[in-house]
Amino acid sequence: MRFVFALIGVLLVASPVFAVQPDEVLKDPALEQRARDISSGLRCLVCQNQSIDDSDATLAKDLRLLVRERLSAGDTDDQVRGFLVQRYGEFVLLKPTFGTHTLLLWLTPALVLVLGGLGAYAALRRRPQSAGALDDAEQEALAAVLKRDPDAP
Amino acid sequence: MLVEAGHFALALALGLSLIQFIVPLWGARTNDPVLMGVAPASALAVLACIGFAFLALTTAYITSDFSVLNVVENSHSTKPLIYKISGVWGNHEGSMLLWVLILALFGAVVAVSKNTVPVRLQANTLAVQAAITVAFLLFILIASNPFTRITPVGEGQDLNPLLQDPGLAIHPPLLYIGYVGFSITFAFACAALIDGRIDAVWARIVRPWTLGAWSFLTLGIAMGSYWAYYELGWGGWWFWDPVENASLMPWLAGTALLHSTVVMEKRDALKVWTILLAILTFSLSLLGTFLVRSGVLTSVHSFAVDPARGSFILGILVAFIGGSFALFAWRAPLLRQGGLFAPVSREGALVVNNLFLATACATVFIGTLYPLALEVLTGEKISVGAPFFNLTFLPLIIPLLLLLPFGQTLAWKRGNFLGTAQRLYAAMGLAIVATLALLAVTAGGPVVAPLGIGLGTFLILGSLNEIVTRSWSKGTRLAVAWRKAAGLPRSAWGTAIAHAGVGVTVIGIAATAWGVEALGTMKVGDRLKAGSYEIRLERLVPRVEANYREDVALLMVSHNGRELGNLETMKRLYVTRNMPTTEAGIMTVGLGQVYASLGEIQSDGSIGLRLYYKPLVLLIWLGALVMAAGGALSLTDRRLRIGAPARAKVPPSSVPAE
């Protein structure tokens, strides 16, 4: 259900046409591939969590054209992204940059894994391990018992 | 009248739930069997009342009673009957009613399982369950009443067109059974904490509930994913949308819970952790409800967002999560730890499983909520989307999947990693051969696909390996081996099948890397090619149906020059809401699909068209079906059906773990 309501949201904003239009595609396939890769990491600012590559909104189309324009002008991928961040803020990046403001976001997976692992290890260590092999005295006792009752399992 | 009666029944259910909450709790405290006996009776009465209310609302929908606000807002007299019925839960108020209906249904099932659940545990569990019911009934009656009357109007405003799909009839009930199913494990966990005692009997009682809820949640998520895939028209099947994440978090925690209860049932270990997971899983279900219905997400879904509702659900959230964690902090130290195990053992492997699943769950959690928190605290706006999750979630899941067959093969208590690896040589060898063969055949193509398919193959073979090695060794006659395999516990088969299902899904996901797409502007007679599949635009026809009109593009699909058949993709306009939708045209070829989506229709009669070929894509959802089937098979295990009642006669504390 929730899922569907999000989808509706997506579609309410974006009229249901498909995203990249045939007339937007660049002639040079290598350049076009770079444009697609960059686009899939840029947020359509008026949509709900959708990249400009998937979105049908007018703004997304403008941004796609802008990305292609910059690439055709000889910008590197990073320059294109930097240009868009300068214009629209970090909100435009679907992958947030690594910095003090996103430290917790990026480090949480590693922190939880390491701390959880240490915690589990400590919990395991704290509890007495089950007895290892029998020592000599125990072996003797065992032999004595077995001798006394040969039918014992 | 029926509508008023439904409204009254809800109020009655609230009163009865209050009784079911307070009286048994007191009874369990004072050890009074009569007071404890109130719990099952009131649970059944609550179910009857809420069931009646639900039927009343459904009747209003079927008869198109346009004097009820909820019906006016979400129905239309010309709508097909199935969408009139599914429309009951296609809106906020109605879906909350379905939510409490399932809550009450589960309470009633616990109430009638007299012989399997000890009386005290049952009384406490039903009391906790009733507390949840009280909270949500209050929410419905105060802030989301589906029975509000208005001056009758002539016609309804129709259901959102995207919801007029068989998906709506199936997806929400499956998902809700999953979510709400975890409320029972939550209630059992709280009951155990209230009682200060927990043992293998508890785990045995709780395990089927976890299994059932997990299976339904798996189906619900898979169904939602497939629905999005065919309805949205760009062929994606998972978007890392906050709303999807809201359902993924309880699934991850629930999967961890499923595995930790195994350890608890078999070995009486991991008690505290299992209780914590049970609380966490349902808390995440509640969090999902809050996120979706409160409007804190920058989401634009169709639930009318009302700040009062948001604060109400936040209140419920804080009360239950806070309350259960306080209970946990207070009572958990009372729980005594049981069975010992070496780090390299089946138990140890399941701890690793839980560690990775919990971390994956935390990753989804922080990724979903961090942007909200950051904006509130600093005003800075950032986005966390698919690239973040691919970068953080996948590195956690892939090692977990690689270790899965080893864990499944390790012995309990104390295992031998080398020996285990030896038992898996055949599976590893075959998976590596498959990977290398695929790499050679598809040289120059994406490397991810063969590697992923290799992993999936290892998972499938590794899971089934367990069945083979338990029933066959060198020299065993095939008939004997078959008899032995058939005689293995159903839970062993269930485990193997569910794990193989994971492998099937992994193969489907990996194969998406081989997908091809093409887009073009086409006139009648034009062709468009994606990979070895080609379509020709036959004609464009307008069509008019009862509640929408559409333009249909009729396509002929061919593969290497051989015609396979026709495909239709449409652009629809739903008249009442003046809302356009795109219906993708999908042709299933083997396990792959040819997927066409109609774009803008130009004034000169040419159309924009996007064409995909997605090899093996069906495996993504088939794998989920296999997982759920494994869960269901496990549920039919003899042990879960008849194991407990015979033991309930002796005091639980004296029951050995296995």
Automatic annotation (TrEMBL), chain A:
Q: Name one Pfam family in it.
A: CcmH
Q: Which family does it belong to?
A: Belongs to the CcmH/CycL/Ccl2/NrfF family.
Q: Which organism does this record belong to?
A: Microvirga terricola
Q: Where is the CcmH/CycL/Ccl2/NrfF N-terminal domain?
A: 10-146
Q: What does this protein do?
A: Possible subunit of a heme lyase.
Q: Membrane as a keyword?
A: yes
The residues the entry assigns to the signal sequence are 1-19
Q: CDD domains from the entry? A: CcmH_N (cd16378)
Assigned keywords, A-Z = Heme, Iron, Membrane, Metal-binding, Signal, Transmembrane, Transmembrane helix
Determine if Repressor is one of this entry's keywords: no
Q: Mind telling me what this protein is named?
A: Cytochrome c-type biogenesis protein
Domain of life (superkingdom): Bacteria
Transmembrane stretches, start-end: 103-124
Under the heading InterPro entries, the entry gives: CcmH/CycL/Ccl2/NrfF_N, CcmH/CycL/NrfF/Ccl2_sf
UniProtKB/TrEMBL annotation, chain B:
Alphabetized Pfam families for the sequence? CcmF_C, Cytochrom_C_asm
Q: Which residues form the Cytochrome c-type biogenesis protein CcmF C-terminal domain?
A: 314-638
Mode of membrane association:
Multi-pass membrane protein
Similarity comment text for this entry: Belongs to the CcmF/CycK/Ccl1/NrfE/CcsA family.
What's this protein's function?
Required for the biogenesis of c-type cytochromes. Possible subunit of a heme lyase.
* Protein name as it appears in the record: Heme lyase CcmF/NrfE family subunit
Query: NCBIfam families in the record, alphabetically?
Result: nrfE, PRK10369.1
Which PANTHER family does the record cross-reference, listed alphabetically? CYTOCHROME C ASSEMBLY PROTEIN-RELATED (PTHR43653), CYTOCHROME C-TYPE BIOGENESIS PROTEIN CCMF (PTHR43653:SF1)
Under the heading InterPro entries, the entry gives:
CcmF_C, Cyt_c_assembly, Cyt_c_biogenesis, Cyt_c_biogenesis_CcmF
- Give the Gene Ontology MF terms in alphabetical order: lyase activity
- Tell me what organism the protein belongs to: Microvirga terricola
The protein's UniProt keywords, in alphabetical order, are: Cell inner membrane, Cell membrane, Cytochrome c-type biogenesis, Lyase, Membrane, Transmembrane, Transmembrane helix
Domain named Cytochrome c assembly protein: residues: 89-294
Record bears the keyword Heme: no
Cellular compartments annotated = Cell inner membrane
Give TM regions: 6-26, 38-62, 96-113, 125-143, 174-194, 206-228, 248-265, 272-292, 312-330, 351-373, 393-412, 424-441, 447-468, 492-516, 616-635
